[in-house]
Every structure is written in structure tokens, then in C-alpha cells.
Amino acid sequence: MARDEHNGFGDWGGYFEAKKSKLEEQFTAASDPFRKSNLFAGISIFVNGRTNPSADELKRIMMVHGGTYHHYERPHTTFTIATNVPDVKVRNMNLSKFISAQWVVDCLENEKILDYKPYLLYTNQKTSQPRLNFGKSKNDSNNDSKLEEPPLKKSDSNLDGILKELQQAVAASPEKEAKITNLSTTSNPSHNAMSAVDPGFLTEFYKNSRLHHIATLGAGFKQYVCELRQAQGSKGFPKRQDLKTLTKSTQIGSVRYVMHIDMDCFFVSVGLRSHPELRGLPVAVTHSKGGSAATDVPVHPQADREAELELFAQRFEHHLHDNIKADKVRSGFDKKMSLSEIASCSYEARKKGIRNGMFVGQALKMCPELKTIPYDFEGYKEVAFTLYNTVSQYTLNIEAVSCDEMFVELTDLVDDLKVDVMAFVGYLRQEVHAKTGCPCSAGVGSNKLLARMATKEAKPNGQYLLDHDQDLLAYMAPTPLESLPGVGSSMSYKLSQVGLSSCGDVQKITLEKLESVLGKKQAQTLYQNCQGVDTRPLNYEQQRKQVSAEANYGIRFSKPIEVENFLRQLGAEVTTRLIDAKRRTKSINLKVMVRAAEAPVETSKFMGHGVCDVINKSSILKHSTDDVNVITSHVLKLMREAHLPPNELRGIGIHLSKLEDVNVVRKENILKKMFVKITEKKKDQTTVEPQEVPATNSKPIPEETKVKPKEKTNVLSMLTAAAGRKSLNEDKVRNEPSRNYDFFGADESSLVSASAGQFDPDILAQLPDDIRREVLTFKEEYLRISENDETGRSPSKKLCTRIPSPPPLALAFSPSSSPLNESDLQPSTSKAAIARLEKRATRKEYELGCRSDQIVSDYIEELPKHIHPALLDYISRPVEEVPCIEEPNFLLQLDYKNLLNEWVTKEEVPAPADVNLMHGQIYKLVKADKMSQIYDVMKYLCRLINSKRSNSCPWHMAYNHLESDIQKKMIELQGYNMHFTETIRCYKCVG
Ligand SMILES: Nc1ccn([C@H]2C[C@H](O)[C@@H](COP(=O)(O)OP(=O)(O)OP(=O)(O)O)O2)c(=O)n1
Ligand SMILES: [Mg+2]
């Protein structure tokens, strides 16, 4: 199986291609002896009609000055030289390449390649490349008859929204672009800088954010394919008729063909269309202007680049096990080098060791002659649409991956037309190149994995078929594991720890061994992948699962009101995107990047985010929404709950998930039904109004969203923790005034909704007398303990005895301990569904108001670190009355997951009795040699705990304690350690 360089034109096409190539070869051979200069190196011309100088003279000029003369127009012809061309021809031609012969003459005279734009024949904007005006009517321009038809299918109304957004995003004036570019290079940042406080910041930020453009385009094309498929009906593919002339297939029987197609150095290829003089050179697309601007970047006097980058590197190494990123960061130590990233670099640059994503400063060290070109977001969009529209003429079995990449199922097409698959691929690539002026590569295999592998072989500007009779094991063997789908830095680290780094390594071990490292599901997939097997189907109708808006540049605030204003803008932005996607959300997540305590205040990348801790907080809604007021008010509430000082914020994002289609008729709400039943059952319990009513929410909170706490301990925890937090905050603020900010009472902004540290009198008033008394007693005691803490006496014992002890797990065995019966959960009666719903119900209660686990955990989080061991002692202390569950071991019961689920989701702090019980049951499993059951139990338990709030430290401690105990027992009884794949993710209590 050799690389298929065949152009795919089959019998008739092959002749012309051969002829063209021969003429080119003759031309090249003839030119050498007469070569005077290499002025036109990398440039090819085709002369169309009469010109002055004549075609012969132009040919001679090219010959002696290193250029190429094409006797026929080729897709890769750089320019078509002409005086004018009849309209009828123009319609099928790429106008961006038509220039006057005078350009050749002037280049020769000036002895350098001049900008060709002033010589363009067919454009109404002589100084730039002709632009495709999406959404603009044909009559808008006098020259429209001469302009190429936009390659966009205009029937698509939703797409118009995406396009409009993109169009606005790329319509930045040059001055504005310059302003943003200067942000990273200005020597006096405070004068020119635009920060998130400026009202126009967000618009400006998104205009210039490449990641925003890539993400928007990628999501847009997934939606585009869906809509093309829905609009397709029974129209068929008339363009398939053109393919009937292709080489016939020699394959007998049905063989699966999946194609992966990807543009070559996409951003660079698009950019080179307006910079042909740079073809063949090392080129990179980046915000940095390159040259001295990239090697002599002014840095804030208080920024400590080395310290900051070392912190970054350590985080990459220790948390993500990503040495590549760590090395990249360390490469940026040089004080004056630009930290702008290279979005894409040409293959000539790659030969010098430059890679996409590298810092410009570092790249310039490797290749000082590297040329940098700016972004052309409009161009990327235009080419991407042409790519998708070209493929969709032949088939709609397309899985959009990103703006420059897709998978295409070719099996039906090839069967239908009985053509050679690679002949089709060649034809398609030629068509894309001819229409866009940009090369692409394609790989074909019997599944997605192999198709993508084949593309790697094909690049640049080629195509490759991984034959069905190829020895796949041998082919896959050298492939590094991290290049397989789903293998990220942390999984590849885990694998490398047990000596597995390539597919060949995995091929040599058993599946069981791999399962003990990764767990069943991941191991099975990886095992198959390493053998070239990939069972993933192509996903044609990818529904949007998440919509987000995030800014991690320019985030500098000093007052809560500024944060609030910004959140309102971001809320509006994310809601617009949600509406454009025709979706509604049920889950609102606020992601905040906060300067890490050890990170310098001034970041070395001006207005960048520097080293941060990431905090995520979410609200789960009862009903889906696309109302900007609802979304914004939840976001404000979440920010308020985070208690973060405005000046420490470095990045803010809103992520909307659990999306529902606006058009889908809602099914009966099972949860609502369940809540009603629970409420009925708990008529005797106290009812408490939700603590917070978002100030900005114009709509009243619906009756059913008001919270009914399950147990008095929740209310107690909430109230006592508020007091505790206040006291501890005061304590901390004294030592470290800029952190542990409390939005409450800090400013007269509308973020303020409660007075600091005080029990809400309204809630207090609604409590039954006995609880109120307990709360007030507890408050006094807590404050007294805090004072003791200040004087250095450990309050741990007292605190621990006051932490509400939930009922032991043993109670969970009694059906009456749950507020739910199976009948409450109609129509589903499966136990898994019950467990799921219970978990959701519990979570929902927390989100909607109680948040008891959050409050207690916050409270524990605030405790001085030295108290953690005491807390662990408490959790793991031997309990005299360990509930006696002899046989059968509940961890061997079918529904053990339900029990664990109930235990973990319902309790803020694991009760010692329960922890003891778990230890006892697990010991029995160790003794009975039930390793896979221990593995499954621990994995499930760990996942449950990790899915709790990140600061559920008592649970983290309990789990880690359990795990280390198991290892001890393993060594003692079995003589070896178990390998647990799940670990607790908490940087506060583990480390
Ligand atoms: N982290 C990223 C990933 C991608 N891109 C942009 C620039 C790329 O040109 C384009 C397409 O990404 P590819 O991974 O396909 O990379 P290229 O097309 O540049 O190179 P290749 O020829 O390897 O496909 O997306 C980016 O700016 N930042
Ligand atoms: Mg690409």
C-alpha cells in the first residue's frame, strides 16, 4: 500500500494531467541554464488571452527568474495573468487570482515581489482580496455579476445568525485590531489597555479571540450539517452524475470506507492567498507582529515571568502530567520573548521544528526568518463553508469535527457509483483546492481511527488509503498512545507509569492487565484502538450539548459593581448564543479563574490570566430557559456565593449545559411529580423560604422552586456555617486582606443581598422554637471556639462534636429511611433510575436553596489546616456500636450502588459509624479475594465523592483513609497493592 498521489481523474483526466505535468517538467528543465534570479520562486502563472507583455515574454521572464509558467490553469496556479476575461468565463473562476501583467513587469523593475492587490482585475475593493459577502443581496454591488457566488446555501436561516455573529466579529476596523494587538506590546499599558471594565470590552475581545472563532465555527458546522440533512428530503445528489466518469472500483463486495479530510495548515493557507510572496517560506499566523515586536516585548516591572512560568510548568507537570506543556512554558522564560501563540504554521516552518501552539518568541529562536501574518477570520469562514458545501454536493453522511476537518462515510457513494474510492477523493480534493486556493489532505480507512491515521500519512497536500488487507497490528504498533482518541495527558501518564507508551506495548499485554490499570470501559476501547479497531459510528446529527461564553484576558476589576456589569454582559452574550442555537438550558455553570495565592499579582502576559485556581459553581434549574434575566440572575447569585475579591479575578466563563431543543414538547416532569410526593409525605416538616431571591430576576420565583429542607440539620448547618464563615473570614482577612472577599456587605451593589455573618432574621423567625434555640446556642459556642483558636488553642474537638452527625449508613437499609418509595418515581421502576432521580432530587434541593453540603463544606474548608487531622480522626474514629451487618455483605448486593449513592449524596460529613462499616465490609472482600468487586466499589465511591462539591473535604479524607487501609490489608493478606484508577480530585486536602 503506497501513498496514492493519483489525481483521480481516471482515464480521460489522467491524460491531461500527465500532459500538464510533462509541460511543467519541460519548462523547469529548460529554465535552469538561463536562470538569472529566483525572484519568482514559488510563484506560478497562467496567461489567459492577450496580454502585454505577451504570454511568450511572460513565460521567458518566469523561466529566467525562477518562477513557473503553467500552460494550463492548475488549482495551485498562483496567478492568472490577463487583461480582461469575458463574464461567462469569470463565473467559474477564482477571481482572487486574476491580475494584470503589469505586476510581473513592476516586480522585475523593483527586483522584489510586490503586493499583487493593486493589480487585481476583478474586485471592487482593489486593495484587498475579493470578499464573499454572506447575507448580502446580489444587487448590493455594481460588480456583483462578476463576483463569485457565495458558496453558502442561503436557505439556512439559523446559519444566518451564526454568520451574522461571525461577520460582526470579523468586521473589526484596522485601527481596532491594532489596538488589541498593541495590548501585548505597549510600553505603557495603562494608557491604551482595554480591560473588562470598559463597556465595549467583550465585543472587542471576541472579535480578536481565535479560540472563540474556532469554537463558534466548529459548533456552527455541526449545526449546519444537521440542518442540511433535515433540508435534504429526497432531493438526491445530482453532482454524483459528474463522478460516473471516474475510474471504476476494483473492489468486489462491500467494503467500508470512511474518509477524514482536513485542510493543510489551515490558517496559513488561507492567509497565503493574500501573501503569495510568502509561499514556500516558513510562515506563522499569530497576533504578534513578529520581528522585534516578538523578541523585545515590554514587561510590567512588577511581573516576574520566570516565577510565573515555573509555577505554570509545575502545575502542568504535577496536576496534568503534561510534560509537553511544561516544556513549552519553560521555553518562554526569556524575559523579552513574546508569549503570543502560533495558531498555525506552514510546513516549511514545521521543518525547522516549529509547531502549532508554540510561543512566537520561542519559534523565532528556532527560525529567525519566520514570517508572521495576521488572522483572517473572514477568510477562514469562507473557505470552511466552501469545504463543507463541496463535500455536501456528493453526500450528507458527514460528521463535522471542526471548521477545517470532517469525517465522511463513503461506503454508500462508492457502492452506488462503483467508482474507485481514491479516484473520488482525488477529485474532491482538486475541487476544494480549485474553489478555495487552499490545499487539503484526506485519509481513508475502514473506521474513523484508521481514516485519521491515514490523513497523517497523507499530509501535506496528499491522500492515503489504509488498505483493508494491511497488517493493522504492525501498522498501529509504533503509534504513541497519546495520539489515540480519548487519551489525554493524564491517561497517557498513567499508562506510562506501567510501561505502556505505544500501541505495540499494549498489543503485547492482556486485556485484563489493561483493565486493572484503566478500568473496564476505557481499557476495552483502548485495547481495540491499539489494534486498529474503532467501533464509533459517525455522528451526523450532533446536537449542541453546551453553549458557553468565556473571557480570560483583560479581566481586571476593583469593585463588585464592575464584576456585576461584566457578568450582565457575559450573561447576555451567552444567552444570545443559546438562542441562536435554538436551545434552552437547565444547568448554569459559572467558571471563575482566580489568581493563585502563590502567583505574582502582575502577569507577565499583559492583562493575561497568569497562574490561577479554577472555581466552578452551578445552578440546576427546574425548567429549561433561554431568558436572559433568569440566566444572569443565577450567574450573579453564584458569583455572590463564591465570595471572591474582585481584584483577584482573572477569568470568567458561563457554561450552559443540559440543553433542550426549543421545539421539543416537554415530557411529563418526573422530578416535579417526585417533589410533590415528597412534600406530601413531609407535611409535618418545617417549611423555609429560599434564602436568596436574585435581585435581578424580573420574574417571581415559582412556588414549586421554593425549598423544603429535608432535615433540620440542613437548616442548622446552613445558619451556623454562615456565622462561622463570617468569623473565620474576619480572621483571615486580617492576615491576608485581599483574599476571602465577602460580597455580602462589601459594596452597595445589587450583588449585596444579606448582611455578613448574621443569621437571616426571616429564616430564623420561621424556625421551630427548639431549632432556633439550638442555632443560637451553637452560634455562641462557635464564636467562642473561634476566639480560642486565635489564642492558639485547638478548637478541633469542640468543633467536631458540633458537626452534625448524619444517621449511620445502617439506616439506609431500612426502606423507611428514604423519603421515596419506588411508586414515587413512576413511570420508571428500575433501581438505577431511582438512584439517579434521588441523587438529582438531593442535588436540586441544594441548588435551589438549602445547599447544606456546600455550607458545611465551606465551613470545614475555612478551618485552619491543622484541624484537618483532627477531623480525619473524628471521621475514622473507632465506633463502639458498629452496626452489625453480618451476611450477606451489602457490597456484594446488586443494589450496592444505590446505597452508596444515597449515603454520599445525602450526607455532608460521613458518620464515623458508616466509615467503620465500609471498612469492615471491604475487609471481608479482601479476605474473600473479591478484587474486581473492591475495584468496582472503590471506583464508584470515588466518582460519587468527586461529583460532590469540590470542597467536600471530609468525604475526601474518608475515601483516602479507606483506600490506604485497603492497601494495608492487601499487603497483609495478599502480598501486593491494588491499582485504583480513580483518585480524589481536591487540591485543598490532598497533596
Ligand atoms: N489550538 C488551536 C487549534 C487549532 N487552531 C486553528 C489554527 C489551525 O490552522 C486550524 C486548524 O487546526 P488543525 O489542527 O487542523 O491544524 P492546521 O490545519 O494548522 O495544520 P494541519 O495541516 O496539521 O491540519 O485551527 C488554533 O488556532 N488553535
Ligand atoms: Mg488542518
Please provide a written account of the structure:
- The chain has 991 residues and is an alpha/beta fold.
- The chain folds into seven domains: 20-183, BRCT domain (Rossmann fold, 3-Layer(aba) Sandwich), CATH 3.40.50; 201-265 and 376-470, 2-Layer Sandwich (Alpha-Beta Plaits), CATH 3.30.70.270; 275-373, MutS, DNA mismatch repair protein, domain I (3-Layer(aba) Sandwich); 476-540, 5' to 3' exonuclease, C-terminal subdomain (DNA polymerase, domain 1), CATH 1.10.150; 546-661, DNA polymerase, Y-family, little finger domain (Dna Ligase, domain 1); 670-875, no CATH class; 890-973, Up-down Bundle (Methane Monooxygenase Hydroxylase, Chain G, domain 1).
- The chain is 45% helix and 9% strand.
- The chain is built from 38 helices and 17 strands.
- The strands form four sheets. A five-stranded mixed beta sheet has the order 9-10-5-11-12.
- β11, α19 (448-458) and β12 form a beta-alpha-beta unit.
- α12 (305-320) runs antiparallel to α13 (323-330) and α23 (511-518) crosses α24 (520-530).
- The longest helix is centred in the C-terminal third of the chain and has 24 residues, at 712-735.
- The protein starts with 9 loop residues before the first helix and ends in an 18-residue tail after the last helix.
- Pfam families: BRCT_2 (PF16589), IMS (PF00817), IMS_C (PF11799), IMS_HHH_1 (PF21999), REV1_C (PF16727), UBM (PF14377).
- Residues 35-121 form the BRCT domain.
- Residues 137-157 have a biased composition (Basic and acidic residues).
- It comes from Drosophila ananassae (Fruit fly).
- InterPro entries: BRCT_dom (IPR001357), BRCT_dom_sf (IPR036420), DNA/RNA_pol_sf (IPR043502), DNA_pol_Y-fam_lit_finger_sf (IPR036775), DNA_pol_Y-fam_little_finger (IPR017961), HUWE1/Rev1_UBM (IPR025527), IMS_HHH_1 (IPR053848), REV1 (IPR012112).
